[in-house]
Amino acid sequence: MKDLTHGSIVRHILAMAPPIMVGMISIMICQLVDLYFVSSLGDAAVAGVAAAGNAGFLVNALMQVLGVGAVALIAHAVGRKDRADANLIFNQAVVLSVLAGLLTLVIGAALSRPYMRSVAADQATVEAGTTYLLWFMPALALEFAMQVLASALRATGIVRPAMVVRALAVAINIALAPVLISGWGTGCALGVAGAGLASSIAVAVGVLMLLAYFRKVERYVAFNAAQWRPQPRHLMRILNVGLPAGGEFAMMFIFMAVVYYVLRDFGAAAQAGFGIGQRVLGLIQMPALAIALAAAPIAGQNVGAGNGARVRETFVKTALITTVVAVGFMILAQLKPELLLAGFSNDRETMAIAFLFLRIISLNMVAQGLIFTCSSMFQGLGNTRPVLVSSVTRVFTYSLPVLWLSTRPGFRIEHVWYLSIAATTLQAAMSLWLMRREFGKRFASQDEAAKAVEAEPVAPLARAPA
Question: Is residue 69 within 8 Å of residue 246, measured between CB atoms?
Answer without folding.
Answer: no
